[in-house]
Amino acid sequence: MSGQPVDALWPDPRTPRQNRALNSLTRNGIVTVDGLTQRTPADLLRIRGFGFGSLADVCDACDRHVISRRRADHIDR
């Protein structure tokens, strides 16, 4: 799944919060699952418009697809 577009993580129809997460990722050049897995939660939270709700949606989607993600020791708030 790593070469897949990041929008493949969510089924259609998406919830508004899932759409917001996807839009924030693609606006910042994160367009593949591989690109997403190269970021830590702290990296993602630095993206404008990407908050803890979006992070939860991304983590849930990765867990559903059994995609390992990088973990940060702490998340800057």
Give an overview of the whole structure:
The protein is an all-alpha fold and 77 residues long. It has one domain (6-64): Orthogonal Bundle (DNA polymerase, domain 1), CATH 1.10.150. Helices cover 45% and strands 0% of the residues. The chain is built from 4 helices and no strands. It has helices spanning 16-27, 33-37, 41-45, 52-64. α1 packs across α4. The longest helix has 13 residues, at 52-64.
Summed up, what is this model?
This protein is mainly α and 77 residues long.
User: What fraction strand?
Assistant: under 5%
What percent of residues adopt helix (DSSP H or I)? 40-55%
- Cα-to-Cα separation, first versus last residue: 30 Å
Q: Might you state the CATH topology name?
A: DNA polymerase, domain 1
Order of helical and strand elements = HHHH
| Strand tally | 0
Low-confidence segments = 72-77
What is the overall shape?
globular
Based on the structure given, which CATH architecture is correct? Orthogonal Bundle
Number of contiguous helices: 4
Class from helix and strand fractions: mainly alpha
Report on the biggest sheet.
none
Q: Rg to the nearest angstrom? A: 11 Å
The average pLDDT is 84
Indicate the CATH class: Mainly Alpha
- Tell me the number of structural domains: 1
